Amino acid sequence: MRVRIATPVVASVLAAGALATGAGVTATTLATGASAAPVSGSLSSLAGPSTPDDDASISVHVVNETGDTMYYQGGEVQDGTFSDAPWQAIRPHSTEDITVLSNGNHGVAVNLDYDLSNGVTHRGVTLHANDYQGNLNTVGTHAHAGIGTLHTTDAGYPNAAFTFHVSDNG
């Protein structure tokens, strides 16, 4: 079957549509009188080179090894947003997983502030995770006297994973 196409632009659009559906375009005489060569592939190949995925993420695993509940006091995400936000409290000897996603920059960071006293006397901890290209760290993590933190980096940029163990008698 022959189809006459009014303009070469329309022919290009139709050829791209055929690629998107997976159909091949066979040699056909177009309105310009030219013969089209067989074409195969996908529409994504017509889009040109793609840019690398620079979206970073942080997975934070918090382990409460204390005898007290850790109450979330707030936090800050730099260059991103919470995907799996912190709970209001982490019970004693429990864990929580928090996920932070970059907003498209070359990294993301998060600070998480917890209080272990429920407002009686201030005993707190700040957990910091930094996942920027070339700057993966937990600098900024600190705790009040009597609270200990042990943190490990389990995976690196761009999808970093950190584990924070919070314990009594730091």
Explain what the structure shows.
- The chain has helices spanning 8-21, 43-46; strands at 57-64, 70-78, 80-84, 89-90, 94-102, 107-115, 124-132, 135-137, 142-143, 147-155, 159-168.
- With 170 residues, the protein is mainly beta.
- Mean pLDDT is 76; it is low at 1-35 and 37-52.
- Strands 2, 4, 6, 7, 8 and 9 form a six-stranded antiparallel sheet that branches. A five-stranded mixed sheet has the order 3-5-1-11-10, with no helix packed on it.
- It starts with 7 loop residues before the first helix and ends with a strand.
- It is 11% helix and 44% strand.
- A hairpin with an 8-residue loop joins strand 6 and strand 7 (124-132).
- The protein has two domains: 8-46, no CATH class; 57-168, Sandwich (Mutm (Fpg) Protein, Chain: A, domain 2), CATH 2.60.270.50.
- Keywords: Signal.
Q: Please, what is the average pLDDT?
A: 76
- CATH fold assignment of the largest domain: Mutm (Fpg) Protein, Chain: A, domain 2
H/E element sequence:
HHEEEEEEEEEEE
The CATH class of the largest domain is: Mainly Beta
Shape category: elongated
Tally the beta strands.
11
Spell out the key features of this protein.
single chain, 170 residues, mainly beta, Mutm (Fpg) Protein, Chain: A, domain 2, 6-stranded antiparallel beta sheet, 11% helix, elongated, disordered N terminus
